[in-house]
């Protein structure tokens, strides 16, 4: 008797089998990197919080500059384009110079991220049900949901260490899910 994955595997075109094997390789590399970064964040949560807020602020400053450049070359009279550029640029600078406030703001965004990550991982788990290893996505979904709830309860006071800690935990479990998924996709590709 064939399992669901064997039927799916038999109907897989050769090009897609090669793609699955390649994806498996890179998901294992990415999973390993995520696990290492996750462990660093778990051990040094305040440092990962500061790195996260610095990264976000530099992206906002760059986004403001790029938006201003495109407003300049496309329509110099577009005051909404200039306003968008200015707000992005100033918010990026504000977060860069006042990182604790930025960490609290990013903490609130992470609450939404963890809830969305939980929803996405749950959907992936349900779609992979019947294949070996599907439960790791379900477990990852549960972990993201719990992290979102804990973060929401302690916000904003605990943001300075929870941002780094929870990003570290999320990266760690995402890395494990990628390693398990990489092994599963390699088997499906053969």
Task: Give your account of this protein's structure.
By secondary structure, the chain is mostly helical. It contains seven helices and no strands. Helix 2 packs across helix 3, helix 5 runs antiparallel to helix 6 and helix 6 runs antiparallel to helix 7. The relative contact order is 0.20. The mean pLDDT is 85.
Write a brief structural summary.
It is built from 7 helices and no strands. It is mainly α. Helix 3 crosses helix 7 (159-189) and helix 4 crosses helix 5 (99-128).
Task: Note the topology.
Layout lengths: L3 H7 L3 H30 L1 H30 L4 H19 L1 H30 L5 H21 L4 H31 L1
Helix pairs in contact: 2-3, 2-7, 3-4, 3-5, 3-7, 4-5, 5-6, 5-7, 6-7
Q: State the secondary-structure class.
A: mainly alpha
Which residue ranges are poorly predicted, with pLDDT under 50 across at least 5 consecutive positions?
none
The helical percent reads over 70%
Q: What is the mean pLDDT?
A: 85
Radius of gyration from the CA trace? 21 Å
Task: Let me know the largest β-sheet.
Answer: none
Work out the number of β strands.
Answer: 0
What is the chain-wise order of helices and strands? HHHHHHH
In DSSP terms (H or I, runs of 4 or more residues), the helix count works out at 7
Query: What share of residues are in beta strands?
Result: under 5%
Give the overall form.
globular
First-to-last CA distance: 19 Å
């Amino acid at each position: 008797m064939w399992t669901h994955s064997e039927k799916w595997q038999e109907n897989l075109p050769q090009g897609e089998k090669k793609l699955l094997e390649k994806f498996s390789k890179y998901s294992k590399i990415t999973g390993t990197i995520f696990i290492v970064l996750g462990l660093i964040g778990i051990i040094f949560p305040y440092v990962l919080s500061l790195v996260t807020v610095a990264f976000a602020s530099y992206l906002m400053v760059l986004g403001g500059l790029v938006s201003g450049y495109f407003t300049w070359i496309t329509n110099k009279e577009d005051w909404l384009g200039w306003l968008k550029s200015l707000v992005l640029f100033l918010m990026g600078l504000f977060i860069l110079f006042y990182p604790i406030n930025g960490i609290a703001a990013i903490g609130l965004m992470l609450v939404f991220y963890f809830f969305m990550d939980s929803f996405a991982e749950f959907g992936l788990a349900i779609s992979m049900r019947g294949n070996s290893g599907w439960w790791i996505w379900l477990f990852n979904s549960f972990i993201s949901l719990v992290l979102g709830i804990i973060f929401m309860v302690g916000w904003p006071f605990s943001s300075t260490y929870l941002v780094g800690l929870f990003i570290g935990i999320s990266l760690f479990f995402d890395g494990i899910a990628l390693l398990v998924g990489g092994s599963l996709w390699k088997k499906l590709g053969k």
